Amino acid sequence: MTESLRIILVTAVSFGVAAAFANQCRRPTWWPGRLVLRNMNRRHSGVTDWGLSHVAVEKGFTILDVGCGGGRTIQKLAAMASTGRVCGIDYSAASVATARSLNAASTGSGRVDIQRGSVSRLPYPDATFDLVTAVETHYYWPDLPADLREILRVLKPGGKLAIIAETYRGRSFDLVYRPAMKLLRATYLTVAEHRDLLSQAGYTEVAVSEERGKGWICAVGRRVL
After folding, report:
1. For position 198, what pLDDT does the model report?
2. Model confidence over 144-193: pLDDT tens digits?
3. Structure confidence by residue, pLDDT tens digits, 24-48
4. How far, in Å, CA of 223 to CA of 155, rounded?
5. Beta sheet of 62-66, edge-to-edge order
6. Which domains can be identified in the chain, with CATH numbers?
7. Beta bridge partners of 161
8. What does the angle CA 67 – CA 59 – CA 153 come to, to the nearest 5 degrees?
9. What gap in Å lies between CA 182 and CA 198, rounded to an integer?
């Protein structure tokens, strides 16, 4: 095998592995997806805790976690809303199965409900939730402006949406992250673009917080009374 052919083959294999991993991040499937979900539960715990510190979570809240992944955020929210109810939705069957397994005790008691579905068509009535969370997921939504309006529909008057993510355009070391976000086919927004997007979708009192040292972002918007 010539050196040039070897380089081509190594490059092709590396690209294939990277593309396969990117697809698993977007939509976990089968056993590779389960591994990715376990890693997400561990890796996203810190940014989730930081993001949730920007919203009040009352004990009796009814909460929706959009793109619930492996279910760790649901577990956290169920502990915070100890007399309320937490719903989770994800379009990946592997995510739903993993999240249900992690929250088996709470789903059995009826305090937690996890379904397969899309953010673009949420299976809930108008004005259902006090709080909607979206952790490390809005990058992948098919129609971000319309999907934000769909979340607004299911929020109660005065309810809030919290978008929590571990990277954004303009963060420190941004040039390192841009190729990865392009590979993931992810929507990569600046702080100002997050703020404008929520405002244009109809949210009020929009506030965007950054943890610049870690590159984290939390965008919070409220449904008007």
Report:
1. 98
2. 999 999 999 999 999 999 999 999 999 988 888 898 888 888 999 999 99
3. 454 555 445 455 555 666 677 899 9
4. 7
5. 112-116, 85-90, 62-66, 129-135, 155-165, 216-222, 204-211
6. 3-222 (3.40.50.150)
7. 132, 221
8. 45
9. 23
| CA 125 to mean position of chain CA atoms | 21
Residue type at 117?
A: G
Distance of CA 73 to the CA centre of its chain: 9
Cβ 154 vs Cβ 129: under 8 Å: yes
Computed on alpha carbons and rounded to an integer, the radius of gyration of the chain in Å comes to 18
Distance from chain centroid for Cα 34 = 17
The per-residue pLDDT of the chain, averaged, comes to: 86
Give the DSSP H or E segment for 115.
strand 112-116
- b (16+ CB within 10 A) / e for 189-225: bebebbbebbeebebeebebebeeeebbbbbbbbbee
Structure tokens at 101: 């397994």
Residues for the chain: how many in total? 225
**pLDDT, tens digit (0-9, with 9 covering 90-100), for 9-20:** 333 333 333 344
Determine the straight-line distance between the first and last CA of the chain, rounded to whole angstroms.
Answer: 69
State which amino acid sits at residue 77. Answer: L
DSSP H stretches of helix in the chain: 3-26, 30-43, 45-52, 72-80, 93-102, 104-109, 144-154, 174-183, 191-200
